[in-house]
Specification:
Blueprint lengths: L1 H13 L16 H12 L22 E6 L12 E8 L9 E8 L5 E6 L4 E5 L5 E10 L7 E3 L5 E3 L1 E8 L13 H13 L8 E8 L2 E8 L7 E8 L7 E7 L18 E5 L10 H10 L11 H4 L6 H16 L5 E11 L1 H12 L5 E5 L8 H4 L20 H4 L7 E8 L7 H10 L5 E6 L13 E5 L5
Parallel strand pairs: 13-14, 13-15, 15-16, 16-17, 17-18
Antiparallel strand pairs: 1-2, 2-5, 3-4, 3-6, 6-9, 7-8, 10-11, 11-12, 12-14, 18-19
Helix pairs in contact: 6-7
């Protein structure tokens, strides 16, 4: 018995258990608790990893499109004349399913209504406008749950299948809301600021790419304000003195690293200017910090209403200074023919194109497209409609508005290469006023039915206004 007791004590010690004091009674575990513990041990919960539910794959319909038209030419309506829009779906190789065409009508009369029909039917929208201006009818193809069907654009981004229709009433008579009285004096003072910052002999120009037919250079030019004018320039190989036109290209809104030009145009010198004056060829960390630095408070660049209250501190001011300085520089290139100076760009680039042509009378051709920031005052003063992505109007922005710049473009031939009748990032009313105000005798604008800021339908009406038809 003693041997058995000794063995039991040793076993407990090896197991690391505490031997109860002989004087203290051992506490008995109630039978109910013993049963519960035994049951728990037998039925240990197995941890099952939850597999996240797979997202339903978005169906892409690249061969489906909405075809829209009006009962007469989209820009030929009169006040209170009935406009009849009709829309149908071109299904391509797809079979019609349980889909719907949904629409919303808005207009410069600030009236809105909407509706929906099965997508296998013709959608007809009838409306009118009681004043000079525009009507917008946006149409989308949706499923039974209200989700828009998608297609993939040329950048492989998913976009809603849609048609952004529009029509105008006497758009050729639309007027601006009035310019600042000291508009010209203000810009004369800004040009004085420019002249006080010399650039000749101080331009940094480095070859960054060499092609068989020419070279691409990274260029930095001193300019007023916090940053220089920077961009990439290509010059054809063996270009002779005074032999080539110059094209200055402007970039749309964005915060991204500018990449060198990928080729050399054999027939012209090309300078692609970025809007911000950032250093070229830097690493990702530099650009991340740089683009943070040009924001103010919660606003992306150019959107801060406090900054925009003063035309001297407005973000656009520095952009204009860099443009004018770049134009001065390219005119010093020995290869420039001394005659042909072309400027071009879309959206924000279209805005810059208008600035360039208005403030430098040596510009001979201007090719703005879907020009941004036209008639900013029109929203507040004339109650014209616009989209969601728009700078809040303050009077100081009038000094940069293309509708007023247009009055100063007297020599260049101007072609507004695209104006979307459904584009309310750059509303058609602003584009119409910009065209109407152009002082040059050589001007053209191309209106695209069904087009918003980025989408151009495969099949739609194109209306062209031009003074060149009569020359």
């Amino acid at each position: 018995m003693k041997k058995l007791l000794l063995f039991s004590l040793l076993a407990l010690a090896v197991a690391g258990c505490q031997v109860p004091d002989k004087k203290e009674p051992v506490k008995e575990i109630p039978k109910a608790e013993q049963k519960a513990a035994a049951k728990k041990a037998q039925t240990k919960k197995v941890q099952v990893k939850k597999t996240p539910a797979k997202k339903a794959k978005t169906l892409v319909f690249n061969d489906i499109q909405i075809i829209g038209k009006t009962n007469k030419s989209a820009l030929s309506y009169k006040e209170n004349e009935e406009m009849v829009f009709t829309f149908r779906v071109d299904w391509g190789k797809n079979k019609p399913g349980k889909y719907f065409l949904t629409y919303v009508r808005r207009g410069d009369d600030n009236k809105t209504f909407r509706g929906k029909v099965p997508a296998d039917q013709l959608l007809t929208v009838k409306t009118k406008l009681d004043r000079p201006g525009f009507v917008s009818v946006n149409v989308f193809l949706i499923d039974a749950k209200g989700k828009t069907l998608k297609y993939q654009d040329y950048r492989k981004r998913l976009r809603s299948i849609a048609f952004f229709a529009g029509a105008g009433v006497k758009a050729e008579t639309l007027k601006d809301c009035g310019e600042p009285k000291d508009f010209d004096a203000f810009w004369a003072n800004q040009k004085k600021r420019l002249s006080q910052v010399p650039f000749k002999g101080k331009v940094d120009r480095k070859a960054v790419r060499r092609f068989k037919n020419g070279t691409v250079y990274a260029v930095s030019i001193p300019a007023p304000g916090p940053r220089p004018a920077t961009g990439y320039m290509s010059i054809p190989k063996n270009a002779k003195a005074k032999s080539l036109p110059v094209r200055v290209m402007f970039i749309g809104y964005g915060t991204h690293k500018q990449m060198p030009l990928g080729s050399v145009n054999q027939k012209e010198i090309v300078f692609q200017l970025n809007a911000h004056g950032q250093k070229l060829g830097q690493n990702a960390a530099y650009y991340r910090e740089f683009f943070k630095s040009i924001r103010t408070k919660k606003y992306n660049y150019a959107f801060d209403p406090e900054q925009n209250k003063n035309p001297e501190t407005c973000f656009f001011n520095g952009m204009v200074m860099r443009i004018l300085r770049t134009l001065e520089y390219v005119k010093t290139l020995p290869e420039w023919d001394g005659k042909n100076l072309i400027v071009s760009g879309g959206s924000q680039g279209g805005l810059q194109t208008m600035w360039a042509a208005a403030l430098d009378q040596d510009v001979t051709v201007a090719l703005p497209s879907i020009t941004w920031c036209c008639d900013l005052a029109g929203t507040k003063k004339a109650k014209r409609i616009h989209g969601n992505w728009r700078i809040k109007y303050v009077p100081a922005l009038d000094y940069f508005d293309p509708v007023f710049m247009a009055k100063r473009i007297k020599k260049a031939e101007v072609t507004i290469t695209r104006a979307g009748l459904g584009d309310y990032t750059c509303p058609p009313s602003g584009l119409a006023i910009s065209y109407n105000n152009l002082a040059t005798p050589r001007k053209t604008i191309k209106w695209y039915q069904g087009s918003d800021h980025s989408f151009i339908p495969k099949k739609s009406e194109i209306v062209v206004w031009s003074t060149l038809f009569f020359r």
